[in-house]
Amino acid sequence: MHSIASLGPGDLTPFPNPGVRRIGFGEDPPQFTVAHLLIHGWAVQRLSECNDPPIGDFKIWAKEVDSLSPKEREELPRDSDLKSCHTLWRDQIYYMWNHVFYDVGNWMANTYGTGTFKPPNTEVFPIEFPKPHENGDGEKKPVATKVWDTETLLAPAYLAPGVSLRVETFEPGQENGEPFHPADFNHKDRYNVWYVKKGLQMRFYVEGDWDQSTDGVAAVMVYGNMLGEPFKFVDEESEESEEDENGEHEE
Q: Which domain of life is it from (predicted)?
């Protein structure tokens, strides 16, 4: 079971047009554990080779750290390369997000009639740190902009220490208007998946207090398109009507 929170715009707008929703795993401990491992796993130092991609080495590592507390996992040795978006190890991390998105997508489709998620179907994009001069004129500029062509599931595969990602959204045709600020991706609230409706423009801003000398990326976002057909719901009346038509209704 998952929990869901409306982030807008239009909290009262019914599905399948909800704007942005945040799906949490508070009532699903196994999925919370997997999401926790994936987010912490992106930056860890892996000295062994990935002999069985896409999931072999991740399963080995997950067993190795299974007994560690969340705090101990935070203290695992980190890879010195925090800029490369794609390595054999990190590509395994992205692949494993298929499992999370599949469960979340099925729950969304069953509960709210959204499109379904068909794995494997994950993509990523990096969020770079802003250059020192980019906001020198006082005008805040986004470091990345995405327009979602389909219903989408979105999560932070990695957030650099001290970073918070401010998100602003625009409805189609209103890109020059006032933005809506649904929420931020930050370290306190990073074990969630966002549902984003089709057509929404999303702009990302790097905020927080980070090491200005870092050579890494500010964040890496992983997402999956919900391209599958929505589940068809059959109510009791339609089932009885179909039975009558087929002569299967018992007297």
A: Eukaryota
- Residue 35 burial (C-beta neighbours within 10 Å; 0-12, 13-18, 19+): buried
Q: What is the mean pLDDT of the chain?
A: 82
Q: Whole-model pTM?
A: 0.83
d(Cα 207, Cα 216) in Å, to the nearest integer? 15
Each residue's pLDDT tens digit, 152-167: 999 999 999 999 999 9
User: Average pLDDT, stretch 188-196?
Assistant: 89
